[in-house]
Amino acid sequence: MQPTMEEFDSEDSGVQDVGPQINGLLVQILETMSVPLVRIRQKLLEMAILICVILLVFWVALFLYGSFYYSFIPTANFITPVYFFYRTDCPSPHHSVCSFPVANVSLLKNGKHQVMTYGQPYRITLELEMPESPANRELGMFLVKMTPYSKAGQIVDISARSAMLHYRSSLLQALGTVVFSPMLLTGASEQKQSVIVELYSEFKDDSYNPTVGAIIEIHSQHIQIYRAHLYVFAHFTGIRYLLYRFPLISALIGVMSNFTFLSLIIVLSFLQFNLGGRRTRGKAVMQQEENNEPDDLNDQSEPQDEGNAPGCNSVEVEESIPDVGVEESEDDSRELAEDEPTCEAGDGEMILRNRNLSQSMLQSSQALTDTTDKTYYRVGVCSSC
C-alpha cells in the first residue's frame, strides 16, 4: 500500500520535532565540555610557561658556569715550535758555525693574548730531537739557556740547564739497526733520540712585567738538531686542579648549583610578589570598610533627624487659583515665588532654591497671557533632612 499524505506529514513533523531536541542536546554537550576544555587549555599554558622558565634558567646557569670556567682556568698547555738560527760569516775557515744556535720564541697566543696568568706556576720544558750521529755522541754535555723578556724588552729571568744524549753501546746500536732495519728502510722509524730539558719547574709570571717572549740559546757549535718544541704546562692546585682533572663532574656540580640558586631566587621573588599583592588588597579592603562605616552611621541617624525636623517630612503641594486679570505684572509673580516657604537643610540634605521655581512659573505665565484666568502653582519640595 502506498503511504498517504497524512503519514508523510506525520513523519515530517516527527523529524522537525527531533531536530530542536538534537540541537539542544548538542548545545548542552558543548556547554558542559567548554569548562573542562578551558581548564585543560589553562593547565597546558601553565605547563608550557613553566617549561620555558626551566629551560631559560638552565641555559643561564650553563652560561654562568662556562664564563666562570673560562675566566678562572688559565691556558693549561702551550706548545710552540722553536727555530734556531746562527751566523756563518766566520773569519776562521775551520768553523762553519760562527755562533751558538739561538731562537726567539713568542709566548703569546695568536700573537695577541698572553699564555701565562699572573700568580699561576708553570712548568717550561724544551724537547730536542737529535740524531744519533757521531757528532752528537762525541758532543757530550751541552748547555741550554732561556731568557724570558717583557714587552718593553726587559729581562724577566734567566735559566740554564745541561743536557746530553742517552748512552748506547756499539753492540746495542748494531742490534737495534738489525731489528728495526725494515722500518728504517721504509722510513717509518729513524735513529734519533728525544732529549727533554726542563728549564723551569715553577715559573710565575710577574704582573708588573708580563712575559711576552723568550730567547733560547744552546751553547754548542757542533750540535745537530732535527727539530725542537717548547712546552708550557700549567701546574694546577686546589679548585683549579679539580676543575681541570674532573671536568664533567665539576660541570655537573657547577651547573646544578647555579640552577638551584637561580630557581630559589625566582621562587622567593614570586612569593614576595604574591604576598605583597595580597597585603595591598587587604589594606585596600580595610580602608574601604573604614570609609563605609561613617556612611552607615549617617544612614542610621537620618530617620531620627527627619522626625525632629518639622515641616520637612513630606512634600507640600499648594494650589491657588486667584481670579486675577491678565494684566498682572511679573513683579507680583516674583514676589509670590519669593514668599514661598523654603526648607533649609543641614549636613547631608538637599536644598531646592525657590528661584528655579519662580523662573518656571514666569515661563508658564507668559504662555497663558491670552487666557482670562491665570493659574499659579506653588510647589515646595524638600528632600530628606
From TrEMBL:
Q: Where is the composition biased (Acidic residues)?
A: 290-305, 316-342
Q: Cite the entry's keywords alphabetically.
A: Endoplasmic reticulum, Lipid metabolism, Membrane, Transmembrane, Transmembrane helix
Q: Name one GO biological process term.
A: lipid metabolic process
- Enumerate the subcellular locations listed in this protein's record, separating them with semicolons: Endoplasmic reticulum membrane
Q: Which domain of life is it from?
A: Eukaryota
Q: Entry's Pfam families?
A: Seipin
Q: Which GO terms describe its cellular component?
A: endoplasmic reticulum membrane
Does the record bear Kinase in its keywords? Answer: no
- Membrane topology per the record? Multi-pass membrane protein
Residue segments, region Disordered: 284-349
> Which residue ranges does UniProt annotate as crossing the membrane?
44-62, 249-271
Q: Where does this protein chiefly localize?
A: endoplasmic reticulum
Designated name of the protein: Seipin
According to its UniProt entry, this protein's organism is Sinocyclocheilus grahami
The opening ranks of the lineage are: Eukaryota, Metazoa, Chordata, Craniata, Vertebrata
